[in-house]
Each structure stands twice: as structure tokens, then as C-alpha cells.
Amino acid sequence: MRISVIGCGYLGAVHAAAMASIGHEVIGVDVDEEKIARLGRGEAPFHEPGFEALLREQLAGGRLRFATGIEQVRDAEVHFVTVGTPQVAGGWAADVVHVDAAVAALAAIARPGSVVVGKSTVPVGTAARLAEALEGAGSALVWNPEFLREGFAVRDTLEPDRLVYGVRPGAAGVEPTLEGRPEVAAIDAVYAPMIARGTPRIVTDWATAELVKVSANAFLATKISFINAMAEIAEATGADVTTLADAIGLDARIGRRFLNAGVGFGGGCLPKDIRAFAARAEELGLGDSLAFLREVDAINLRRRDRVVELVLDALGERRSDDRVAVLGLAFKPDSDDIRDSPALDIAVRLHGLGVDVVATDPAALDNARGRYPRLGYVATAAEAVRGAAVVVLLTEWADYRGLDPVTLRATAGDSPTIVDGRNVLDPATWRAAGWAYRGMGRG
Ligand code: UGA
User: Fold this and answer.
1) Which of 260, 332, 401 to probe ligand 1 with, by most ligand atoms within 8 A of CB?
2) What is the reported pTM?
3) Is 386 helix (H, G, I), strand (E, B) or coil?
4) Residue 151 counted as domain residue
5) How many domains does the chain have?
């Protein structure tokens, strides 16, 4: 099929390359000329395992191209809208200005019979608000949320665990099933290989589809904040939150995944999505229903305070003389994304408190340096740790999980402390090598 992808950020760029790889003819469009030029040259504008190889392969195969002008997508049969919905300045709501602009532009040029597919994460009610202009121009609107994780974006796009299509709700009693719509058949044709593999697919109304996305992220954020609240209790009672997570996680109804206590969640999705969801509930007069999300956010942010406290405590009198090594700046491993990163936030706060911070990250150094040029940066963990009184592990890159405490002890400062912000190190091994070990909720 001929497909367009409007917005070539994380989601759009990966979606465009993935759709080309399953046989479609794809054009990706973005207003950012530099980004489009880089994508067109086969350069990934962000760190994502497997993406650059896929991009190059699809560009070379001739089915994928990139452009800046929206008029170039006129002939597409299916248009995906993948623009960002960041948090508004000075509030909690999502800013949907880019979604509105993309849909308005498509309404003006899309050919009748085409289908517009919203993938951006939007407040519930957005699709219903946008549909009229498109339907007036002869295009149908489907909301098809995306559940990809950074670091696994290519695999999650090509092998999703579910497909959700939200379509215009049918009139009660007139149209009992939404399945027979032509727009559903069009999207089935786009995702044919996934459907042939038996990927679960749910066809529902717009509002449900919009809510599936934000409620999934709200649930994941709540799970993380739940275990971080248990970490707070464990800290006060001498209990161990990792053992607690292992034990409750064995109950299949609870599950062990997303129960890792630490410095909390960050990134371009979970934090802003829970805030936007709570803000939308308030607009609907249902603030009480999602009031708990404010608590989820507060628990999450308190974990950053806790790490700062642990570091200052370890430094004691040595606060202005001794060095602190920060290992990790990205919001999670296998990513160079520093949006709302707990790691970078903690590094900047320590620096602001007069601490001599030396930070490193395998992929996010350039992004962090661009944002906070005054922090000290070095290329490797070995350099960061040299002479440090306190080492803080904030992003659990495989390289950092595998660090040898004996080797590092030889170059670190006197009586060093390791603060394990992700609970991924073995306390006994580090203590045996001469480190004071402090974890998150570990006694
Ligand atoms: C998240 C969701 O997992 C995706 O399903 C969703 O599609 C995406 O947002 C989105 O809305 O676009 P992502 O932001 O890539 O994906 O990252 P996650 O893997 O969910 O991790 C989020 C944060 O939670 C990270 O900072 C991670 O370190 C933290 N985390 C995760 C924990 O602190 N503890 C855990 O047990 C798990």
C-alpha cells in the first residue's frame, strides 16, 4: 500500500522504516529539515538498537523516502499521524497543537477514500473532535495507539503484542459490529503480516482506543510507584524491597515485571502521559477518579530526593572537596533519551548543591552536554570513578551492571560509597571489595 507517516520522531521514523520492511511504499514527512536530511542519508537521529540498519536497508530497497512538504503525501492510501504531544508549558495537559495541525493539513490534501490513522498519544475525546473535518473531505479517521518501548522500538513495531483500532462509534442497534468498516479493512491490509501471525486485534470506538493507551501507561507508572513506595517503607523498617518484589511477583496476578524499585520512571512518555491523563480527568469533572496519579507522580519524584540525600550523607563533611561519579544519564539503558531523565535530574541537582559531579553514559553524553554544558563529563565509567568518594549508578546499562568492584576500588577515593540507584548490583560483592553499599529500599 502507499503509506505516509506524518511526524518522524521516535515513533514515526521507526514506524516508517518498519512499514517499508513489510512491503509498503512509505513516505515520511516532518517539518524539521535537518532530521529529514539525516533520515534520508540513512542516519538515525536517536540511539535505537537495530533502527539504523533497518533504515538503510529500506532506503536502499527504494520503498522508503523522506520529505518536508506535506503536499507530497497526497497520493497515500493510509496516512499515519505520529507527531508529538508534549506537556504544555506551565501545566499538566498534553499539547495537541501538532496533531491538530497535521490533521488539518491532511483534511486539505488527502484523497477521498483514504484513511487517516492517529498514533499519537492524545487526551480522550481528541479523535471525535478531529473527525468531522476529515470525514467532510471523504477520509475516515482511526485511532491506533502505539505501545512500543524505546530500546525495543523495531521489534515492538514489527511484533506488537496487540493491535487496537478505534473507529467512529456505531449508532446503537443499527450497526452492531464495527468490524465491517472499510477503514478497518484498510488497516488490516497495512498490518497483514502481524494479523496473519495471530496478533490479538481489538476493534473498538475512538474513546476506548485513546484510553487504552493512556491507561496502559498509567498502570505501568503506578506499578513502578507502588514498588517505590514499598522501598520507602523498607528503608524505614530495615526490609529489602528487591526480595519483597521477587516474592510478590511470583503471584501470577501481580507479576515481577515493572516492579524494580530505584530512581523511578522518566522518559518522553510515562511522566507526561500520567499528568495529561489526570488533567483530562479534571476537565471532565472526574478529577477524583485519577487523583491517585498525582500520588504516583509524587512518589516517583521523591525517589530522586532520596538519592540526593544518600549522596550528601555519604559525602558528609567532604561535600565540597570530594568527587561524585554519576554512571548513566539516559532515562533508561539502550537509549540516548534524556527527556525527564531521573539520572540527569539527579546529576544536575547535585551539581547545583556545589558537589563536584563527573558524569558518564554510553550513549546520552552528547544530549546531556548539549542541555547542561556545565556538568563535568567523561567518556567512560573508569574515568568517572577515578578519585571519586561516591559513585552513583543511575541508569542500569549492561556495562555498569558488570563493573568489577575490585578494579574500581583501586582507583576510587578513600573509603568510597556506591549508591545503587537501580538495585542492580550485588551488595555483598561490593562490600567485600571495600565499598560502602547503599541501595534503594534495601535495608
Ligand atoms: C513506555 C511504555 O512502556 C510503552 O509501552 C509505551 O509505548 C511508551 O512508554 C510510550 O508511551 O511511547 P518507554 O518510555 O520506552 O515506554 O520506557 P519503559 O520501558 O516503560 O520505562 C519507563 C521508565 O520506567 C524508565 O525510566 C525505566 O527506568 C523505569 N522503570 C521501568 C522503573 O523504574 N522500574 C521498572 O521496573 C521498570
Assistant:
1) 332
2) 0.96
3) coil
4) yes
5) 3
Q: Are residues 174 and 63 in the same domain?
A: yes
270 Cα: distance to centroid of ligand 1 (angstroms): 6
Q: Whose CA is nearest to atom 3 of ligand 1?
A: 149
Instruction: Classify residue 212: in a domain, yes or no.
Output: no
Q: Taking a C-beta distance cutoff of 8 angstroms, is the pair 5, 12 a contact?
A: yes
Q: Best substitution site from 46, 120, 149 to test ligand 1's pocket, by max atoms within 8 Å of Cβ?
A: 149
Identify the residues whose C-beta falls under 6 Å from ligand 1: 121, 146-150, 217, 220, 224, 258-260, 262, 264-267, 269-270, 273, 331-332
pLDDT digits (tens, 9 = 90+) for 286-316: 999 999 999 999 999 999 999 999 999 999 9
What domain range includes position 396?
302-438
109-123 b/e (C-beta count within 10 Å ≥ 16 → b):
bbeeebbbbbbbbbb
Residue 209 forms part of a structural domain: no
Instruction: Indicate whether 89 and 192 sit together in one domain.
Output: yes
Distance separating alpha carbons of residues 190 and 186, to the nearest angstrom: 7
Q: For ligand 1, what atom is nearest to the CA of residue 257?
A: 36
Residue 179: what pLDDT? Answer: 84
CATH of the domain at 31: 3.40.50.720
> Residue 229 is part of a domain; what is its CATH number?
1.10.1040.10
User: Is 322 found in the same domain as 193?
Assistant: no
Query: 57 burial class (0-12, 13-18, 19+ CB within 10 angstroms)?
Result: middle
Nearest-CA residue for atom 24 of ligand 1:
265
